[in-house]
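Issue 218. Parser rejects a valid record. Input:
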Amino acid sequence: STGEPAFIRRVFEEWGPRAEVAEVALLTAMGYDWVPGNLAGALALAEAGEAATRVRTAYCTTGPFGPSGGTRLSAAGAMMDPGYAFRGGRIVTERGGKRVRAFDAAKPGSQAISAPGSEHFTLPRTYPRLREVDVYLGWFGSRSRAMSIGAGVMDGLFRIPGTKSGAEALIGRFVKGSTGGPDAAQRAKAGSYVIGEALDDAGAVLASVHVEGVDGYDFTAGMLAWAAIRAAESPLEAKGAVGPVEAFGLEQLEAGAADAGIARRAAEL
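Output the parser choked on:
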């Protein structure tokens, strides 16, 4: 279930090769972080064909977004860790929030900031032609630019010895985890809207796919259950650290995500 970037990177770079030798599969980030983007991105790449060498995904919300205490705590901690991106066919270290761009498909003029997700590791495994992968968060709307600037300032501060440990102590004191999440009524008011775009070398969008549905917490519960049942019924053939498309196949993953509450927009079917 863990979708924190530093943990994802460790799974793929440290434990993945060991798991491959042991002939077992490791699946991380099998919830809202970051299955919908993997699905939307893979659907767009499949539609675009071999000309697509770049892919980007964007996570947006509909209705009020009410994070749980655990989400707030883990997000605060993740902001202090080095991020990453996929550039030139390889993973490179890059701070989160470095880039800001608009996704009119979500809401005209709406902005999103770059973030490290699982797509950087997983989609190139399934689509080796990829040279660039981007993931964006559109949760902050008009505040995205300010968030990006703030992330840059924090990145500079944390390079000063002692500041990171001090910030960790403050977070532990003032940001409380395990305080409970949004209740059923709150979750019913919220929803998910995720964009996948496949691009060519010149940056032209070749295909765009949108998936949407329930809020992230309901989707995570359903997706984790679906993946566990599928893996128990039919052992995964993929070995090592793998992504959801590689583990289950695109068709089965699309069906599983729909069962969990997020599906491709009807107008695109």
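Fixed in the parser; the record now loads. The chain is about 45% helix and 20% strand.
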